[in-house]
Protein: Amidohydrolase family protein
Amino acid sequence: MERTFIVRGDIIQAPEKERIEEHGDSYLVVTDGLVEGIFSSIPSRFSHYRLVDCRGHIVMPGLSDLHVHASQYQFRGMWMDEELIDWLNRHTFPEEEKYRDRDYAERAYRIFVDDLVRSPTTRASIFATIHLDSTLVLASYLEDSGIKAYVGKVNMDRNSTAGLSEDSAQSLEDTQSFIERTEGWTNVRPIITPRFIPSCTDGLMKALARLAVDRGLPVQSHLSENRSEIEWVKELCPDSTSYADAYRRRGLWGATPTIMAHCVHSTGREEDLLAMDGIFIAHCPDSNANLSSGIMDARRYLDAGCRIGLGTDVAGGCSLSMLRAMGDAVRVSKLRASCVDPSLKALTLAEAFHMASVIGGSFFGKVGLFEPGWEADIVVLDESGIATTLEDLSLSARLERVVNLKSEGAVMHKAVCGRWLF
Amino acid sequence: MERTFIVRGDIIQAPEKERIEEHGDSYLVVTDGLVEGIFSSIPSRFSHYRLVDCRGHIVMPGLSDLHVHASQYQFRGMWMDEELIDWLNRHTFPEEEKYRDRDYAERAYRIFVDDLVRSPTTRASIFATIHLDSTLVLASYLEDSGIKAYVGKVNMDRNSTAGLSEDSAQSLEDTQSFIERTEGWTNVRPIITPRFIPSCTDGLMKALARLAVDRGLPVQSHLSENRSEIEWVKELCPDSTSYADAYRRRGLWGATPTIMAHCVHSTGREEDLLAMDGIFIAHCPDSNANLSSGIMDARRYLDAGCRIGLGTDVAGGCSLSMLRAMGDAVRVSKLRASCVDPSLKALTLAEAFHMASVIGGSFFGKVGLFEPGWEADIVVLDESGIATTLEDLSLSARLERVVNLKSEGAVMHKAVCGRWLF
Structure:
């Protein structure tokens, strides 16, 4: 009965991208981790359920972070004055090398997982590092935390720093080991994670593609984040018609559910591939600003019906907060409209909310909505500390204030699949 | 002796725009509100001074907010899905109309001033509304708070909503009354505040210009925030060669110290006027994103030696935090470089810090730096709640983390001109 209860509170969700649905002082009924529905009073058939009283607080679906590097959490919010390549070489790669040491990984991943638990994220697709042992540490902490996550042991067998490069056979073997050693786990599942085209040989990519299909595992990687990266891929893959096509030719494109992060500079044919092949796009607005990547055209993908969710991309992004990612997505879309293409309307709060909950959630199952039969991922917000207003606010306005003014430390309770984490 | 003391802590400042100066575990000596200097140990001549022990905490100069609307604070962080004109008509003007009621003003300004006290701002240039009584309420709360502020009774005698329009003579008379009734105050001084060209007749503008010069009062207004606004000014002032020139012809341009907020779309001749006439530019990055105004070219003004500081522009901007304004200034400058003009380098943390402290501070006097003889505006930061790192961080990296991850609620102590507010 632990995962069977009723939450009373101000319930809000974004069932469609155009629409935020508000249920002031209502009841969310959950049976064995699955949603029964939202009710204005408790139906008699549920009257014996335990009541979780969150009256006066916003109750919203959990958010899904489609792209985050756990191994970069130690330096989030820092060193943002550097350009991408310097930032990678001076900070990102040296930091990731430290995860060769299991002890370091234990201490660093402990901090990451504890903070992720306190964040509005209930589902995440996570990059670890190339190191098998450390990646298992991260996976085990997540498994115990109750957050549902895909965790990727990263593959890198070329064009990497000396301390962060694998032998191709070992890379594949370690990936297989990671898959085997997490088999049957409840919360964590493995995801095939070639860092990106430049850091993986064709041979490794093709072997990873076979592994993904054989084991029915999803895939995550990076696509068209930065112009010089795209030029590099062109040089490396002269046979490919686009960066996306390079993944496709190597078999790592939509054969199983696939997340591609960024897609800032995807054009024409690549856009078509993203749409046609049902690729999940992880839009990471803060990271794309911090690393001077640009502003992706979220409006176009969203209107085309693409599967575009949001990612924090820590540590390119500063914060683990998906609430902040929602605000950032809206803000940068306005800057794109004013600086690049005024014909494209900015994103709305409803759209960003829908992306962070429903679209992102669909990578993980029936997640992100309080509809009958959906998994009960629930976030209860703490609005304290945002100055009082003299007049009552709508639920949407209250959510918008949290998004814009209290994206850190705003979660007071969280449940994943009906299990309360705190 | 209240304003004479020594602060021990990790002292950081940005004396030049290229350089953040770090003094780990050092002593800031203050005599009667003025800085004596930063020392690595306490000089014997100051050994009898009271010690304020902030060991382990960042001690930085107070920040100067060059542009903020106190009367919009009630709805900050909300209604950001609307375009500028809808946003003004549906929310901003109806909200400002409420300040006709002194009781409402008392309740709303109390919240604003209390939050401003808790913010990293020690000096601010503030818009109230057209209402004399309410503006006096705001001024008196600020006077008592200890924050040093310029407060403007707003002038609007044309093109305004019915509830927010003044008779020209009354507008002038109320402005004069506001000036007289705040004469001799310690912390608050009046500032001449025509809302912007479209909302003031030429006659009123010219009378305000005379008033500014006669009383030696500074001026604040808005300039080139939005393209349709600029077109409107062109229609209203066919004789002027630019929006800036329209202010200049009406005498409200640099005759006394002048702040112009935004300057997002200033070009050629207008840029020259801003530089030549020593106008203070209030760069408001968050507001310019939220209202789809665009990204102003801060790099160009900064490199040209212009007086460009930062403003929060609440409620176009979401937050009162000038720490957040620093982070936003860096971030949008990167988006400008990636989306508009890659030849212009993004702002650095040092530059944003210098703008928020030294350049902005210079509007208020010798403010924003811990140099001998400068006024001791001091902010002590609380870094708690930002997850621990496994390795020690430089002072700059710690400041950057606060800017990017804890811009709200980050101030643990604050002094203005040597007087501790908390």
In short: Residues 322-339 of chain B form the longest helix (18 residues). Chain B touches chain A through 56 residues (CB under 8 Å).
